[in-house]
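Students often ask why inverse folding is considered easier than folding. One informal answer: many sequences map to the same fold, so there is more than one right answer. In these notes we will look at a single instance of the problem. The structure comes first.
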């Protein structure tokens, strides 16, 4: 199974975060993150997105409770050996400690130098990979995501379309893959 570290920047946008977490829950990939990544998520949700600090912390708690196996341990001693951008060395160290195949990030330029066997992928490319490797599981995840939205309610097609700004290639592939099965 594909092992993926989710960088903080893909956990900020609600719809993308929900899609990635539901895809992990459906078995499309094994989700990994570190306490440092989640700290960054909380800081940036408060600072950049204006979320109340208590709500951001509560979101983190929900994520950790839902995915207790996602937390990577032992990355700290590896951080100094990483050669990518200094502010993101903790992410690569977590990827090494987790045995990850991929780091999902919107900021691939800070991940130019990676250890062998680890790739940095934009969320769009990662979702395309998931639809190629686990189409049924991903469709199930997206259907559950759509069913979970109430205000406003969304269909599978609307959830897919809503991802267009962050994952246009995925949207095109998903619409083609699920054609006739989008409701």
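Output (designed amino acids):
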């Amino acid at each position: 199974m594909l092992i993926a570290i989710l960088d903080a920047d893909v956990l900020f946008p609600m719809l993308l975060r929900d899609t990635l977490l539901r895809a992990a829950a459906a078995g499309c990939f094994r989700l990994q993150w570190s306490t440092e990544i989640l700290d960054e998520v909380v800081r940036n949700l408060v600072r950049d997105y204006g979320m109340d600090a208590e709500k951001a912390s509560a979101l983190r708690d929900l994520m950790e409770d839902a995915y207790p196996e996602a937390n990577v341990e032992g990355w700290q001693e590896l951080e100094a050996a990483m050669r990518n951008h200094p502010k993101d060395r903790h992410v690569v160290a977590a990827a090494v400690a987790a045995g990850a195949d991929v780091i999902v990030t919107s900021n691939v330029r800070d991940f130019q130098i990676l250890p062998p066997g680890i790739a940095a992928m934009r969320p769009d490319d990662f979702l395309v990979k998931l639809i190629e490797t686990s189409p049924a599981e991903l469709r199930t995840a997206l259907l559950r995501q759509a069913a979970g939205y109430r205000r406003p309610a969304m269909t599978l097609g609307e959830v897919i379309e809503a991802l267009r700004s962050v994952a246009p290639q995925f949207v095109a592939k998903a619409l083609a893959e699920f054609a006739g099965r989008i409701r």
